[in-house]
Amino acid sequence: MEESEDVPKDFIKLESEKLSVDEVSELVVSPSCGAVSLFIGTTRNNFEGRKVIHLEYEAYSSMAETEIKKICRDVRQKWPSVKHIAMYHRVGVVPITEASVIIAVSSPHRTESLEAVTYCINTLKASVPIWKKEIYEDEYSWKENKECFWANSEK
Q1: Burial environment of residue 35 by CB neighbours within 10 A (0 to 12, 13 to 18, 19 or more)
Q2: Per-residue pLDDT reduced to its tens digit, 97-120
Q3: Dist CA 75 CA 23 (whole Å)
Q4: For 79, which of 50, 52, 107, 147 is 20 to 30 Å away at the CA?
């Protein structure tokens, strides 16, 4: 890839199929960057002592994509050296140990990409309309992100 073709890009996807860490991380690799930072959120098998069977995610897709684009714009303002950003989130059923969300960021140096990845996941959980349902052995529960601004506005 020629340097002139390596323009900053944002990769955003809501996906019902299994997410690939390799695919997402490869999207952000750049010859001008020495750092690729990743966050991978996976489904765990328990919550507060209860056995989790799997998770189910629902999203208001068009609004979710718009909000994720805003996050990417904010990252570029806060960390101008960031090259590429990939934010993939699973929708539908997510089995135990599989990824629900993968975020990858490249930058010339590690500090910017690490800070940007942290900002991305925290802001995604606070502002993007994606809802999680935990399925237990005997019941289910819709989970509220404590970071979510609209959940806290009524309290």
Answers
A1: buried
A2: 999 999 999 999 999 999 999 999
A3: 21
A4: 147
Distance from chain centroid for Cα 36: 15
Cβ-contact 131, 58 below 8 angstroms: yes
Whether the CB-CB separation of 106 and 113 falls below 8 Å is answered with yes
To the question of pTM greater than 0.85 for the whole model, the response is yes
CA distance 141 to 134: 5
**CB neighbours of 113 closer than 8 A, spacing ≥ 6?**
33, 35, 36, 37, 79, 82, 105, 106, 107
SS3 55: strand
Cβ-based neighbours of 150, under 8 Å, separated by 6 or more: none
* CA distance linking residue 100 with residue 93, whole number of Å: 9
- The DSSP symbol for 83 reads -
68, amino acid identity: I
